[in-house]
Amino acid sequence: MENIYLAIVLAPLIGSIVAGLWGKKIGTAGAHTVTIIGVAISCGLSFYVFKHHVFDGGAVFNGAVYTWAVSDGFTFDIGFLVDQLTAMMMVVVTFVSLMVHIYTIGYMKGDPGYQRFFCYISLFTFSMLMLVMANNFMQLFFGWEAVGLVSYLLIGFWYKRETAIYANLKAFLVNRVGDFGFILGIAVVLMYFNSLDYEDVFSNAGNLSNITIQVIPGWDWNVITLICMLLFIGAMGKSAQVPLHVWLPDSMEGPTPISALIHAATMVTAGVFMVARMSPLYEWSETALSFVLIIGAITALFMGFLGLVQNDIKRVVAYSTLSQLGYMVVALGVSAYAAGLFHLMTHAFFKALLFLAAGSVIIAMHHQQDIRKMGGLRKYLPITYATSLIGSLALIGFPGFSGFFSKDAIIEAVGHSELFGSGFAYTAVLLGVFVTALYTFRMFFLVFHGKERMDEDTRSHLKESPLVVTVPLILLAIPSVFIGGLTIGPMLFGDYFGSSLVVFKEHDVLAQMGEYFTGALGFVLHGLVTPAFYLSMAGLATAWYIYMKKPSIATHFKEKYKSIYNVLDNAYGCDDFNDKWFAGGARRIGNVLFKVGDAKVIDGVMVNGTAQTVGWWAGVARYMQTGYLYHYAFAMILGLVGLVSWIFIV
Amino acid sequence: MFSDLSLLSLLIWLPIVGGFAVLATGADKNPGLARLISLVVTVLTFLLSIPLFTSFDTTTASMQFVEKASWISSFNIHYHLGVDGISMPLILLTTFTTILVVAAGWDVIKVKTAQYMGAFLIMEGLMVGVFAALDSVLFYVFWEAMLIPMFIIIGIWGGPNRVYATIKFFLYTFLGSVFMLVALIYMFTQSGSFGILDFHQMPLSIEEQIYIFLAFLIAFAVKVPMWPVHTWLPDAHVEAPTGGSVILAAIMLKMGAYGFLRFSLPITPGASAELDWLVILLSLIAVVYIGFVALAQSDMKKLIAYSSISHMGFVTLGLFVAFSIYENTGSYQGAALGIEGAMVQMISHGFVSGALFLCVGVLYDRMHSREISAYGGVANTMPIFAGFAVLFAMANVGLPGTSGFVGEFMVILAAVKSNFWIAFLAATTLIIGAAYTLWMIKRVIFGEVANDSVGKLQDLNRREYWILGSLAVLVILLGVWPNPLLEVMHATVDNLVTHIADPKI
C-alpha cells in the first residue's frame, strides 16, 4: 500500500512540475492533459484506498517515507498516517480537485496564464494531500503552509489587478498570524512530548493532562489547553474564523475554479480537519473546546448576516462559506467531530457546486458578477439553473438533501451539549439557519428569476456553458443530493471513523443522538418537526416575498435601517480596523524605528557622533600645530616658565 | 587520502595565487582572459572542496584534514588548519558562492575587470582561511586581511556614496576586531599558546571569562551584525556592487556567528551562561525591531540588508538559548537543536540572501535603480525572473519546503524550551518577515507595468538563469531534505554542548 500512497501524492506533484517548467513546450492542451492525468490517477487510487480502509477493513497505515531531519535525538519524518478519516479527506480532495481541473479547461480558456494555472492547482492538490496524510506535526505544518502558498499564488493569479495582489498579500499575512500560533503550539508539543509524531503525542496525552505551565507568571495553564488553543489559532487563520476571517471574502479576487476548490471545498476546511485529527488532545481540555465552540458560533451567525448585503455573486457564496465553516467548528467544539467532518464532506460537494455554477453564470455574463445586473437567467442556462437549485437547497438544509443531514446533526448535537457556551451556540446556529436560507435564495431569485436586468448586448450573447463546465456541475450535483442520506448512518452513528477520532464518554453527544437514530428516512421525518426546518422554510419564503413579490421592501429596509445596513456593508468595520491599526500601525512603528532609532540615535548620535567628536578634538589639536616657529618657541618659553615656577613653589 | 594532499592549504592558496594571476593579466588589457582564469580557478576550488564533504568523518568531533607547521616559533604560533562539522559546511558555502559571484560579474563589470575578479579570488582564499584556521594569530590575520579586498570592492566598484560606506564598514569592523586581539594576546600570556583548541581547554576564572567574552562579543556582534552595531551593513550593501553584497551577506556575516561558535561558547562557557540574556535580548531586538525597520525601507537592497540582520538574530538566538533551556528544564536537551538550527540558518541564509541580492542585481543592471517605487509589474516583462524572485522571497519568509524554514523551525522549537515568550517574540518573524518581503514583491513584481522602462525589460539571459537556478535547486533541496547537512554537524555540536555545560572555573 505504501507505494499507492506515494503515487497518490506524487502524481499531482509531477503534473504540476511538468506544467510549470515546460508549460510553453507542451502547450495548453499538454498542460491540462498532464495535470488532469496526474489528478485522475490520484483520485482513482484514493477511491481504492477508501475501499481498502472502509470496506475491506484494511489496517491503519502509519509509516515514515524518509527522515527529513534528525537533531538532538529528535527525529522529524515525512510520513503518512492513513485511516478512515484520512481516506475520506483524500477522496473529497481529489474528487473535487479533478472536477475543478476539468471545469478549468472551459473557464480559463484563452487566458495567457493557462499553463501556470494548471501548475498551481495541481501543486495545491499535492500540498493538501500532504496535509491530510501527515503522520506528524512537522509535515502537517508543511502542508498547512504549502496550501497557503498556493492560495497566495492563485488569489493573485491575475497579478495585474491591484485588488488581486492586495487580496493575496492580505490572505498570506492573516494566515501567517494563525500560523504564528500554530508553530508555537507545535513547539510546545515538542517540549512536553519530546516527539512530533501523532502516535507518540496522542498516546501520551493522558499523562500530561494535569501538568501546568505558567505562561504568564502566577497564572497556571494546563499544558494541553495551551497546546490546543495555540493550534486552534492556526485553524482560525486557515478556516477563516472570526477575527481572522477577513482574508476570505477578498480571496474571491482569484479565478472562480480556485474559489471552489481552495476557498470553499478543501483548504479552508483544513482547520476543521486538523482539530478533528487532534481530537485525542482536544478531549482533554474543555476550556479549549469551549473556546472553539464560541468562536465557531460567532462565525456561523455573524458572517451569515454579511451574506445578506453582498451584491457580488461570489462574495455571497464566500460569506456563506464562512458561516458554514462556523457550523463545522461549532460541531468540533461540542466534541461532535464526526458531525463536523460530515458537514465538511457534504459542504465540499455542494459548495464547490455553487461556486462552479456561479462561475458558469459569470462566463455567460461576460465576467459581470453583480447580481443586481442579472435576473431571469433560468431560461438561458437550464443546466446551471438546475444544479444551482440543488446546491442552494443543500446549503439551506432542505430535508433530504445532503446538507440537511449534516447541518441538522450539528444543530441537534449542540442542543445535547452541556459545555460552557453551548446555549449561546445553539441559538446562533439556529438563527443562522434562517439567515442562510434568506441570503441563499435572495441570490438565487435575483440571478435566475425575475426581471432580466442585464444590458441588451449581454442578453443577446447569453448561452449555456460548454460541456467541460456543465459536466462537473452535474457530477457534483449528484453527491450534493445523495451523499448525506447514504452516509449519515455509518459516519455519525456507526463506527466509520473507528480509532481516528477520540471522544470521551461525557462529551459524546452523537452517542446520545444515536440512541434514537433509526436510519436516514427517520432522520428526515424527525427533521420535519424541528425548529431548524421551519426557520429555513421561513427564510426561503421571506426571500421569495422580498425579492420576487415585493422588491420595494428591500430598498425600504435599506433606507429605514441605514445604520444597520452600513455596519453590515462595512463587514463590522474589521477591514478598516486592521488597515488602520495593524497594517498602518506596523508601518508607523517601522518608520519611527528607522528614522529615529537607526538614523538619529544609532547613526546620528552614536556612530557619526563619535566620528564628529573625534573630528572636533582633532580640529582643536590642529590649532596647536600651526607650523610657525615663533608659536613653538613661545610655547616652549611658556612651558619653561611654568616648570621653573612649579619647582620654586614646591 | 585527501588529507595527504593538504587540501585545506590548497583551498586557501589556490584562489589567492589565482587572484594574483588574474591581476597579472593587466587592468583592462585582456578582460576575457581575466574572467576565464577566475572562472576556472573558482570552479576548481569548489571541486576540490567537495571531498571535504564526501570524505568527512561524521562520527568524530575532532578536527579533520589537519595541517600543522611551526610559523613563528618564538611566540609559539603555528600554521594550523583543520575543519569540523561547524566550519566544513561554511567552507563549501564559500567556494560555491564565489563561483556565482564571478559569474554574476561576468559581463556586468566593465571597468577594471581583472582587479575586480582578482579581489574576489583573493578574498575567497582568505575567507576559507578564516574558517580553517586553528591558530588564533593565523585566524586573526585572515580575519583582518579579508577586509582589504572588500574595502576595495566597495570603494572602487560601489555606488555614489561608497566612500562613506567603506570607511564606516572598515572602522566598525576594525574597531571590533581590536578587542578580540587584546583578548587573544591576554590568553596567550596566560597559556603560552595561540592555539584555538588550547584555548578551549584553558581554565579561566569567571572574571577573566567575562572580560574575554565581552571583547569577543564586540568583535563578533559587529560582524553578525547585531543590534545596535548593525548600521554599517545597510550602507555597505547599498553601495556595494552585486558581487560584494552577495559575499557580504552570504559569507562575511557568518563569520561573526562562527566566532561565537569557535571562540565565545567553548572558551568562555561560564561567562556565556552568565551573559546569555544579553545575547538573547539583542537577538530578539534584531528579530523584532529590525523586522519593523525593514518594513519602512524604500530601497530594495536596504530592505534585504535589514532582513539579513533580522535573520541573523535567529542565528545568535539559537546559539545562546542552551543555557536558559538548562535553567528552565534542568537538562541540555534542546540545546543542540538550537545550535544546529542556527547553523542550518547560516547556510540557508547564505543561499537565500545571496539569491535575493543577485535578483536585485539583475534588476539594477537593467534599470540602474534600487528604489522599489521605480518598479511595478516586472512579472509582465520578466516572467521567469518573477518566478525566481517569488521563490526566494518565500524562502526568506521561511516557507516549509525551502531552506529558510529549517533553521527557523528548529530555533523556535528550541527557544520554547527556554522560555515561552522568547519563542513568542522570535516567532513574530513569521508575520513581520512575510510582511516586508511580500510587500516588496507586491510592489516590484506584481501589478500593471509601472512605466516604460519596466515595459522594456528583458527577461533573464542564460547566465543569469543558471546562477539563480542553481541557488533555487539548493534552496529547495535543503528545505526538502536537510538531514545530510545536519548529519555532519551532530558529533561536533554534541561535543560542544557537553563542553559548554562545564563552566571551566
Largest sheet of chain A: 2 strands, antiparallel
Instruction: Give the quaternary arrangement of the chains.
Output: heterodimer
Give the overall form of chain B: globular
Report the principal-axis shape of chain A. Answer: globular
Low-confidence stretches of chain B: none
Number of DSSP strand runs of chain A: 4
* Low-pLDDT residue spans of chain A: none
Give the amount of beta strand of chain A, in percent.
Answer: under 5%
Structural class of the secondary elements of chain B? mainly alpha
**Total strand count of chain B, please?**
2
Structural class of chain A: mainly alpha
Considering DSSP H and I runs of 4 or more, what fraction of the residues of chain B is helical?
A: over 70%
**Radius of gyration of chain B over all CA atoms, rounded:** 22 Å
What is the terminal separation of chain B in angstroms? 40 Å
Q: SSE order of chain B, as H and E?
A: HHEEHHHHHHHHHHHHHHHHHHHHH
Number of helices of chain A: 27
Identify the biggest protein-protein contact and residues per side: A-B, 54 and 62 residues
Structure description:
The complex is a heterodimer of chains A (650) and B (505). In chain A, 74% of the residues lie in helices and 4% in strands. By secondary structure, chain A is mainly alpha-helical. In chain A, the strands form two sheets. A two-stranded antiparallel sheet of chain A has the order 1-2. The mean pLDDT of chain A is 90. Chain B has 505 residues and is mainly alpha-helical. In chain B, helix 3 runs antiparallel to helix 11. The mean pLDDT of chain B is 91. Classes of the chains: A mainly alpha (650), B mainly alpha (505).
